[in-house]
Design a protein that fits this description.
Elements (H helix, E strand, L loop, with lengths): L2 H18 L9 E2 L13 E2 L13 E9 L5 E10 L2 E6 L9 E4 L4 E4 L1 E6 L38 H7 L2 E6 L7 E9 L17 E5 L2 H7 L8 H25 L11 H11 L3 E6 L2 H14 L3 E6 L7 H6 L3 E4 L17 H7 L5 E3 L10 H14 L6 H4 L5 H7 L16 E4 L10 E6 L2 E5 L15 H8 L1
Parallel strand pairs: 1-2, 3-6, 3-7, 8-9, 11-12, 12-13, 13-14, 14-15
Antiparallel strand pairs: 3-4, 4-5, 7-16, 9-10, 10-11, 16-17, 17-18
């Protein structure tokens, strides 16, 4: 075995050993009841809880960098001290413990770890073959009972390439074939043999919903819905049932047999009405986003973010006023009719509305590797029309705004004392075409180093592939 392959294998084994050990965003998932407990499980009980444990690390001091804190501040020649998995201090002249690892960051930039709110890594992994197609449960228009986490393949090589691009957390969502596709899950981007070893502790689930062309295209010849009015009727029918389930569940009481047997579909939708599961809604057209906001009001839930939202600019003020984020591409448009009316200034206009929450997302195994460059394209498009966005503001599109929409902004997404030490050290301005993530820290442990092959984790699936291909030649 080549030395690099051997080193990567050792690193992978080490990290595996370490890692495997709502609108109420601060509310953690409820623990599952004991097997002998006859009470109905709470709506957000987690039978598959996180086993994630941070990799131990000595304190780390990054000194002399340009620091973007993720909340709008830029500090020059500043230090960042991490210890025991948390941000300890940010500023100038910070003293560190004697055992601290000191990194000369002069001439470099430091940001929070990037967060992708819309990813299908693990459920549509590489290589792209039918055996790996586990992101869409295309058996009914409403499959709220399925959880994307149960499809995740931790060996997906895309996790490692995303880490090399500075991504430290990501939300894995089901696909958009269904009106309601199921629960999404938030992961820490660490190597693990199980998805539970990656599962972000305390992060609320997201519910993937989709309006528009996809559901009616998939189900139009399979019993419907076949129209947009059929889509909305399907949503309403699902939430009417869920509201009845919630009423019965609460009226009967936790210990009453009258509550009936568990229904996984209704548990998810009822918890969504309660605000314990956050809605992430695939929706392109402005008129349909407006309908979905009205539908949410009808049934008492809240949409955390619209995803893709090619026409979000048309109702940017309403999104801001109602506290709804928009997770958008830099310049994807025109690939189907509902994405036809896109403009390159879309995210900028959402961002400029007072109180606007704009997010750059990927929905792509390639795009997640360079989210910083996607944001850079948006900055360039703004400059072209006279809108100048400084780096300290633009970084929010990749960090704190995404964390807000996922209900984890009290834990990560910005550099502040007490928050998770999810940090990226860049070789320069992260919005430069030449920007590279040199070092990536998750909970204060350096898990990626561009200059050290031992800290460039590879999927088990890839280990040895270079040797096999060499022999084939």
């Amino acid at each position: 075995m080549h030395k690099t392959a051997l080193a990567a294998a050792c690193t992978a084994l080490l990290l595996t050993a370490c890692a495997s050990t709502s609108s109420k965003p601060s509310k953690p998932a409820t623990a599952a009841p004991a097997s002998g407990d006859k009470k109905p499980a709470a709506l957000t009980a987690d039978a598959y809880p996180s086993t994630y444990k941070p990799v131990p690390s000595a304190p780390v001091l990054l000194s002399g960098a340009t620091v973007l804190d993720g909340l709008g501040k830029r500090l020059e020649s500043a230090d960042v001290l991490m210890a025991e998995g948390k941000i300890v201090a940010i500023g100038s002249g910070i003293s560190a413990p004697e055992n601290a690892i000191r990194v000369d960051a002069r001439g470099k930039w430091v940001t929070p770890g990037l967060i992708d709110v819309h990813s299908h890594l693990g459920v549509y992994p590489s290589p792209t073959v039918s055996a790996h197609s586990d992101g869409n449960e295309m058996t009914a228009p409403v499959t709220a009972q399925v959880w994307a986490e149960h499809s995740i393949w931790p060996q997906d090589p895309g996790f490692a390439t995303a880490l090399a691009g500075g991504v430290t957390s990501l939300q894995i969502l089901p696909g958009s074939a269904n009106l309601i596709g199921g629960r999404g899950v938030t992961l820490k981007n660490v190597y693990s043999t199980t998805y539970q070893g990656m599962k972000f502790p305390g992060a609320p689930w997201g519910l993937k919903m989709a309006c528009g062309e996809n559901p009616k295209r998939v189900y139009g010849s399979r019993g419907g819905p076949s129209t947009r009015m059929g889509n909305i009727a399907g949503f309403r029918a699902a939430f009417i049932e869920a509201a009845e389930y919630l009423k019965k569940h609460h009226t009967a009481g936790e210990s009453s047999k009258d509550a009936g047997k568990r229904d996984l579909k209704q548990e998810t939708l009822a918890a969504t009405i309660n605000g314990d599961i956050l809605v992430h809604n695939h929706c392109y057209r402005a008129d349909e986003m407006a309908i979905m906001l009205d539908l949410a009001r009808e049934f008492g839930f809240r949409i955390s973010a619209f995803h893709h939202g090619v026409e979000a600019y048309k109702l940017a003020d309403r999104l801001a006023a109602e506290g709804v984020c928009a997770a958008l591409w830099a310049d994807w448009w025109g690939f189907k009719m509902e994405s036809f009316d896109g403009i390159q200034e879309n995210l900028l206009l959402v961002d400029r509305a007072p109180g606007g929450c704009a997010i750059v997302h990927s929905d792509s195994a390639e795009g997640i590797q360079r989210l910083n460059q996607e944001a850079a394209k948006i900055i360039a498009n703004g400059r072209r029309i006279g809108i100048d966005t400084p780096p300290e503001h633009a970084i929010r599109w990749l960090t704190s705004n995404a964390a807000k929409s996922m209900g984890i902004d009290h834990l990560t997404g910005s550099l502040a004392p007490g928050k998770m030490a999810d940090v990226v050290l860049w070789n320069g301005n992260p919005f430069s075409s030449y920007a590279l993530a040199e070092q990536v820290y998750i909970d204060g442990a350096k898990l990626y180093d561009r200059a050290d092959a031992r800290l460039q984790p590879q999927s088990d699936f890839l280990l040895g592939q270079d040797l096999m291909q060499g022999e084939a030649r």
